[in-house]
Write a structure and sequence with these properties.
The complex is a heterodimer of chains A (about 500) and B (about 475). By secondary structure, chain A is α+β, with helices and mostly antiparallel strands. Chain A has 15 helices and 15 strands. Classes of the chains: A alpha+beta (about 500), B alpha/beta (about 475).
C-alpha cells in the first residue's frame, strides 16, 4: 500500500536573555553544576516568580516572524508533575492563552527551490527544567567521592543551571509530509531564531530541541489517522531525518501486515538507528493545568506589539530578495548564504569594504565590475572559506580573517595579482594567522607576474628557443600555441598572468 | 508595669527618652517567654542570642538618635515567614530542619527600622487550620484558658502578643488566620488588602488569597507596624503600586458621619448569643460615636466556605509539590524515585495537609476542573461584586469575627466543623478586601470576643480610623491571668 506521512513538530527553543524566565539568575551554561541558581529557580519555600520582560519581547518577535496572531491578553498556567529536575513540582507554562496563536512558516526546499507553507498551531512561553545526570550501579562513588546511598539502584544528581531558562515551544500543524521537509522546516526555524537574535538555537547544545508526532495515512486520504506516535530524543538535524525515515518504514511495515498502530511515545536510539517504546499513551499523565496565581495576566498592548514589529530585524526571506537585487548573486549562492546568518553577515561586511574603497576612489569599477567582484567574493566565501570554517567547526564570526583582508584578497585575485591556485594557499595562511594577504603573498613569493616587460622578455626567449613550435603555432593553431604559453609560464615559474601571456605571445607571433 | 507589657507606642517613647533600653525590653520579653511559654507553646523557636545582639545594635541607634517607632521593639514571626539564618518549619515535619536561605520582604522592610526578632511562632501546619492544633509540634494554648485553643492558624503569634511575650507579631491570613486567633486571644489583628503586602518569603498556602498582616495590642500599634509592611514589592508582582498613606494620621479621626453597613448574612442562627450581644452593643457604641448604621446584604457570602474549600486545595496541591524530599527538608530513602516521593511526603505531612492535597488534586483533575475550580472562581467573582456593591452605599462593614469565643482543644475533631470556622472571615479573602479584628468584649467566662471591620480595597486607613475610635471609646482592658 502507498502511505503518506503526517508529521507535526514540537520545537523547544531556549531564548537568549540575560536572566532566567522568572528570576535574576543568569541564563548561561556552565561546566560547573548549580552555579547559576537562586532561591527562586531552586524552588525554595516562599519564593515568587517575576516575569522576564525581555523573554516576552523575544516571544512576540518570534510570533511576528512566524505570522502568528499575537494575543492581546495572555496568562501563565501551572503544569503539575513530579520530577527531580522540576524544582517546584510544577512547570510554569501556558495552557489556553498562549502569547502566539496561529501562524505559518514558508520553507524553501533546498534541492528544488520549491516553496511550501507549514502552519504553526501556537508558540507559547514556559520555563526549562534542570538536568539529571544518572550514575548506574557500577559507579560506586559520586563526584564527591562518597558512597552512593542507594547503591544497588545507582543514583542521579541534578543540575539546576538550566532550570527556569525561558523556553519557547513552537507547535506546527501536522502538515509536514516527509523527513526531508521536517529537517528543512527545522533548519529554517533555527535560522529564523538566529536572525531574530532570539536564540543561538544550537541543537547539539540543546538550545533547540525537537519532538515529532508522526503517523501514516493512505496516499490521497485527507483525514488524520487514529493513532499518533511521538518521537523524542532526536538531538541533531540528521537524527530528526533518520528517526522519521525509520518511523515511516516501521509504521508502513506494521500497516502492510494489516495490523493497527497504537498511540505511544518512542525514543530515538542514535547508535542503533532505531526507535524504542518509552510509554504508551494510555498511561498519559493528567497535568492538572490551572492559572498561575502568582503572576498577573499579561496585557500585550497594540502599541507595544507594533513597536516590536517596527523594529524587527531583517528576516531570511527579505534578505534573500535583497541579496538577489542588490548583489545580483545567483539564486543558489544567495540561498546558501542567507541560510547561514554568520556567513551572510560576513559576506555583507566584505561587500562594504569594496564599496568603501570605491567611495574613497581606491578602487575604480563600474556596476558590471562590482557584480563580477561580488560573484568572485561569493565564490570564495562559499568555497574555500566555508570549507575551512566547517573543517574547524567554527562560525565566520570566529574566523581570524577580517572582512577587510578578505576583500583585499578578492581584489588581488580580480586584479590578477595572484593566480586562483596560489590564492587558495594565501587564504589558508590567512585563516591560520589572520595575516594581511599582500604580506602573505610576498612571504610565500606567490605574487603573480603581470609586468609586461618581464613577460615580453620571457616570451621572446621562448620564441627563440622553440622555432618548430613557433612555426606550428602559425600554421597548425591552438595546440602548439598552448605549448608556447606553457613554456612561457614555466619560464616565469608559474607566476605569470595567463591572460597577459596570451596577449603578448599573440602580439610577438604576429610580428614574426 | 513590666516592660514586656508595653505597647509599641509606649515602649518606643520610653526608648526614645532613654528611660529604658532595648536590651532591657528584649530581656523582659525573653524572660516572659521562658516563664509562660512552656504552658502556651506559642513559640517554636526562641532566637535568644541573635535577639540580644539585635537589641544592643538598636540601643546604639537609639543612642545616636537614629531610631524610628519600631527600633529596638521585640516582635515575633509566624513560622511560615522566612527569616534568613533561622529555621522555618511551617509547623511541619517535612521542614523540621529547613534553614531559611533568605529574608522575606516583610522582614527586610522591618529591618530598616531595626526591631528585634525574638523568634518564630506556632501555627497550624502550613497554615491549614483554625486552631493551631494541626501543628506538628503540638497546639498553642489560649492564654485566657489553657484548656482552649488560641485559634489559628496564627495561634502562636496571637497568644504571644496576648501573653505579653512579644510586643507585636507577624501573621498570615488566608481565610481568617490572623483575625480569628486575634479574637480568641483578645488582640488586634489586621488582614490587609490582597496585593498590599508582599508575599515574597511567605510559604504559600493559597497564593491568590494569602496575605501577611500584624497582630498587636492596640489599633495604634497596628498603624505603626503595618506602615512599614505596606507597599509594592518588585519580588511579588501581585502587589500593586498604590499610594501608602500615613496610617497614624487616621488615629486622629473620629467616626462621625461614617456609614457602617451591617450585612445580615453574618448574623445567622449558629451565631453564639453572647457573641451576638457583644457585637450588638459594639454597633450601638459606633452609633453613639456618631456613625450611621445601615443594614446591608452580601447575598453570595453563604457560598464562601464552599468556594474556598475548592480554590484553596487546588492551589495547595501545587504549592506543596516542592516538598518532595529531593532538595531540602525531610527525605526518606526508597527503592525508586516514586517511593522516595511517597515515603517522604507520607511521613512529612500531617493529616489535614494530606486531605487538602487530595481534595485539590481531585478538583483540578481532567474532567472535574470545570465543575469545581471554574465554578468556585465564578462564585469568588460574585462575592467580590457583592462587596463592591455594598461599598457603594457604606464606608465600612461591621461583622462578628467568629460565631463563638475560643473552643476547647480537641472539641472540633470533625474537619468540616473546623472549616466552618472561616465562615465570617473567609469572604474577605475571596473578595480581596482588608479586615480588622478588634477586641469588643468578653464572655461571662472571660473569653475575649472581637468584632470585624471591613473596608474597600486599599483603604486600611478607614479600618484604623474606626478601630481606634471604637477601642478608645470602649476602654477595654483584657489581660490573661497567667502564672509561671
Amino acid at each position: 500500500m502507498n502511505f503518506e506521512p503526517v508529521i507535526g513538530l514540537e520545537v523547544h527553543v531556549q531564548l537568549k536573555t540575560e536572566s532566567k524566565m522568572f528570576c535574576r539568575s543568569k541564563n548561561a551554561e556552565s561546566d560547573q553544576a548549580n552555579v547559576h541558581i537562586c532561591e527562586v529557580c531552586t524552588g525554595q519555600p516562599g519564593v515568587l516568580p517575576v516575569i522576564n520582560r525581555e523573554a516576552i519581547r523575544k516571544t512576540v518577535q518570534v510570533g511576528l516572524a512566524l505570522n502568528c496572531e499575537i494575543a492581546e491578553y495572555s496568562k501563565f498556567d501551572r503544569k503539575n508533575y513530579f520530577y527531580p529536575d522540576l524544582p517546584k513540582g510544577y512547570q510554569i507554562s501556558q495552557f489556553d492563552m498562549p502569547i502566539n496563536g496561529k501562524g505559518q512558516l514558508t520553507i524553501t526546499m533546498t534541492m528544488t527551490g520549491e516553496k511550501k507553507t507549514i502552519g504553526i498551531t501556537r508558540a507559547h512561553l514556559e520555563e526549562d527544567a534542570g538536568k539529571l545526570i544518572h550514575y548506574d550501579n557500577n559507579d560506586d562513588n559520586d563526584r564527591s567521592g562518597q558512597k552512593s546511598k542507594v547503591k544497588s539502584h545507582g543514583y542521579s544528581l541534578v543540575d539546576y543551571n538550566r532550570a527556569g531558562v525561558p523556553l519557547l515551544e513552537i507547535v506546527s500543524e501536522p502538515e509536514i509530509k516527509s523527513a526531508d521537509e521536517a529537517k528543512i522546516y527545522l533548519q529554517q526555524l533555527q535560522n529564523m531564531m538566529r536572525y531574530l537574535g532570539a536564540s543561538d538555537a544550537d541543537m547539539e547544545k540543546g538550545h533547540l530541541r525537537c519532538d515529532a508526532n508522526i503517523s501514516l495515512r493512505e496516499s490521497g486520504e485527507s483525514g488524520f489517522p487514529e493513532y499518533k506516535v511521538e518521537v523524542k530524543n532526536m538531538n541533531s538535524f540528521k537524527a530528526v531525518s533518520n528517526a522519521l525515515n525509520y518511523e515511516i518504514q516501521r509504521q508502513a511495515k506494521v500497516l502492510d501486515r494489516g495490523e493497527v498502530l497504537a498511540s505511544e511515545t518512542r525514543g530515538w536510539v542514535e547508535d542503533k538507528g532505531i526507535t524504542v517504546l518509552q510509554r504508551s499513551k494510555e498511561e498519559s499523565q493528567d497535568y492538572r493545568y490551572f492559572p498561575e496565581p502568582d503572576l498577573p495576566v499579561l496585557h500585550l498592548t497594540e502599541a507595544w506589539v507594533s513597536e516590536i514589529k517596527r523594529t524587527l530585524p531583517e528576516l531570511p526571506a527579505a534578505r534573500l530578495e535583497r541579496f538577489l537585487r542588490e548583489f545580483k548573486l545567483t539564486p543558489a549562492d544567495a540561498q546558501t548564504l542567507i541560510g547561514n546568518k554568520d556567513l551572510a553577515d560576513y559576506f555583507e561586511q566584505v561587500v562594504s569594504e569594496f564599496d568603501a574603497w570605491v567611495e574613497a576612489e581606491d578602487l575604480k569599477f563600474n556596476i558590471d565590475d562590482r557584480t563580477e567582484y561580488l560573484k568572485l567574493a561569493a565564490n570564495w566565501v562559499l568555497g574555500q572559506f566555508l570549507s575551512l570554517l566547517n573543517a574547524k567547526v567554527v562560525g565566520a564570526k570566529e574566523s581570524k580573517i577580517t572582512p577587510e583582508n578578505f576583500a583585499e584578497l578578492i581584489k588581488l585575485i580580480a586584479e590578477a595579482r595572484v593566480s586562483q591556485l596560489s590564492a587558495k594557499d594565501v587564504l589558508n595562511k590567512m585563516f591560520e594567522t589572520g595575516g594581511d594577504p599582500s604580506n602573505i603573498l610576498d612571504e610565500l613569493g606567490l605574487a603573480q607576474v603581470s609586468d609586461e616587460a618581464v613577460i615580453v622578455a620571457a616570451v621572446k626567449k621562448v620564441i627563440k628557443e622553440n622555432p618548430k613550435a613557433v612555426a606550428d603555432a602559425k600554421t597548425k593553431g591552438p595546440k602548439a600555441f598552448g605549448f608556447l604559453v606553457g613554456q612561457t609560464m614555466k619560464e616565469l615559474k608559474g607566476k605569470g598572468n595567463p591572460q597577459v601571456i596570451n596577449e603578448l605571445l599573440k602580439d610577438e607571433l604576429r610580428k614574426i | 508595669m513590666k516592660l514586656n507589657e508595653l505597647t509599641i507606642k509606649e515602649a518606643s517613647e520610653k526608648l526614645a527618652k532613654k528611660e529604658i533600653s532595648s536590651v532591657e525590653l528584649t530581656q523582659a520579653c525573653i524572660d516572659r517567654v521562658k516563664k509562660v511559654d512552656p504552658k502556651l507553646n506559642a513559640f517554636l523557636f526562641l532566637a535568644e542570642q541573635s535577639a540580644m545582639l539585635a537589641a544592643k545594635e538598636a540601643d546604639k541607634q537609639i543612642a545616636n538618635n537614629a531610631n524610628t517607632f519600631l527600633t529596638g521593639i521585640p516582635y515575633a514571626v509566624k513560622d511560615n515567614i522566612l527569616v534568613k539564618g533561622t529555621k522555618t518549619t511551617a509547623a511541619s515535619k517535612i521542614l523540621e530542619n529547613y534553614e531559611s536561605t533568605y529574608d522575606a520582604t516583610v522582614i527586610k522592610r522591618l529591618s530598616q527600622a531595626a526591631p528585634v526578632m525574638l523568634g518564630k511562632t506556632n501555627l497550624d501546619e502550613f497554615a491549614m487550620g483554625a486552631s493551631t492544633e494541626n501543628s506538628a509540634f503540638g497546639p498553642t494554648r489560649n492564654p485566657f484558658d489553657l484548656e482552649r485553643v488560641a485559634g489559628g492558624s496564627s495561634g502562636g503569634s496571637a497568644a504571644a502578643v496576648a501573653a505579653d511575650e512579644a510586643i507585636f507579631a507577624l501573621g498570615s491570613d488566608t481565610a481568617g488566620s490572623i483575625r480569628q486567633p486575634a479574637s480568641f486571644c483578645g488582640v488586634v489583628g489586621l488582614k490587609p488588602t490582597y496585593g498590599r503586602v508582599s508575599r515574597y518569603g511567605l510559604i504559600a498556602m493559597c497564593s491568590s488569597l494569602d496575605q501577611i498582616g500584624v497582630l498587636t495590642k492596640t489599633v495604634e500599634d497596628t498603624a505603626i507596624s503595618f506602615q512599614l509592611l505596606a507597599g509594592q514589592d518588585e519580588f511579588d508582582t501581585t502587589t500593586l503600586p498604590k499610594h501608602v498613606p500615613d496610617y497614624t494620621r487616621s488615629l486622629n479621626l473620629d467616626v462621625r458621619g461614617v456609614k457602617i453597613g451591617i450585612p445580615k448574612e453574618f448574623f445567622i442562627e449558629g451565631l453564639d448569643q453572647e457573641v451576638r450581644n457583644i457585637i450588638q452593643s459594639a454597633i450601638k457604641q459606633f452609633e453613639t460615636l456618631g456613625a450611621e448604621i445601615i443594614e446591608t446584604s452580601l447575598p453570595n457570602v453563604p457560598y464562601s466556605v464552599a468556594a474556598y474549600y475548592i480554590i484553596t486545595p487546588v492551589e495547595i496541591s501545587a504549592n506543596l509539590s516542592r516538598f518532595d524530599g529531593i532538595r531540602y527538608g525531610l527525605s526518606v530513602a526508597g527503592k525508586s524515585l516514586d517511593e522516595v516521593y511517597f515515603k517522604s511526603r507520607s511521613k512529612g505531612f500531617g493529616a489535614e495537609v494530606k486531605r487538602r492535597i487530595m481534595i485539590g488534586s481531585y478538583a483540578s483533575s481532567a474532567g472535574y476542573f470545570d465543575a469545581y475550580y471554574k465554578k468556585a472562581k465564578q462564585i469568588q467573582t460574585l462575592i467580590r461584586d457583592d462587596f463592591t456593591k455594598a461599598f457603594e452605599k457604606v464606608d465600612l462593614l461591621l461583622t462578628p469575627v467568629s460565631p463563638h469565643a475560643a473552643f476547647k482543644i480537641g472539641e472540633k475533631a470533625d474537619p468540616l466543623a473546623m472549616y466552618l470556622e472561616d465562615v465570617f472571615t473567609g469572604p474577605l479573602n475571596l473578595a480581596g478586601v482588608p479586615g480588622l479584628s478588634v477586641p469588643a468584649g468578653a464572655t461571662e467566662s472571660g473569653l475575649p470576643v472581637n468584632l470585624q471591620l471591613v473596608a474597600p480595597h486599599f483603604q486600611e486607613e478607614k479600618l484604623i480610623q474606626a478601630g481606634h475610635a471604637f477601642e478608645q471609646a470602649l476602654g477595654l482592658k483584657l489581660k490573661p491571668r497567667l502564672t509561671g
